[in-house]
Amino acid sequence: MGLTIGVDVGGTKIAAGVVDENGEILARTRVPTPADPQWAVGAIVDAVKELRQQHEITAVGVGAPGYVDRNRSTVIMAPNIDWENEPLKARIEDLVHLPTVVENDANAAAWGEFRFGAAAQHNDMIMITVGTGLGGGIVLDGRMHRGSFGVAGEIGHLNMVPDGLLCGCGSHGCWEQYGSGRALRRYGRERAAGDPALGRRLLELNEGIADTITGSQITQAAQEGDLLALEAYDELADWLGRGMGDLASLFDPAVFVLGGGVSDSGKLLLEPVAKAFEKYLIGGVHRPRAEVVLASLGSAAGIAGAADLARQV
Question: What is the pTM of this model?
Fold first, then answer.
């Protein structure tokens, strides 16, 4: 199969690209995600039609947020777009007349890193996307692990703290509430408010206001060596390593790939996470350890992964 189009559907933007068999993106486009979910399909179709004007396309892959059924056709639920039982595959195929597959967006990004990025030398990997929330995708024996109903890999909603913090999913104590960009902001804000002297640099960066300190400000302060900001990163890393230790016990991957916006901080995240993972891995030094690496494709992972999965129609 030749060129395919990968579409990465986000809460604020829809990004699409023409991708060859080597994962190279030959052309791109992006449009805002419409506020009305009824117009979102039209925006996807418009992006596909734009890219088809200059390229011969054989199939389309769409990475969509939320739960996608095992047949890779229906978005069961996507809260950020307000889709429920949306027959996305059928609607797109009717309008563009190309074979189409729908995949969870985190799965698509994980597949992109597995095929063309940081995990390309391995058959078993877990990607963890550390952004505003916490997501991920699992590849086992060279195959995307979707589970019986298609909704495996929702690692951000593992219960880490019984009766813990309320999560947007409605449960309490989800891993996402402790190992995400949202959690990093909370750690920085709480520490700066509780100890203004120690939090002096963060408060300087945010005009003295603790409760609106941003993740980028915490990252800047940490890069400058600020103790409180580094402590916030250590707290985040500890929770990530704790969950990764559990996942290693379940799936025994060769590599964990850290992606998402927070991973842009590089070693600030990677090094403490790798140490925390070693700390919480059952069996410790007596057991082979998975590598912990940073994602290499950035925002291209979802597009490349969705496009490659479209070749598996």
Answer: 0.91
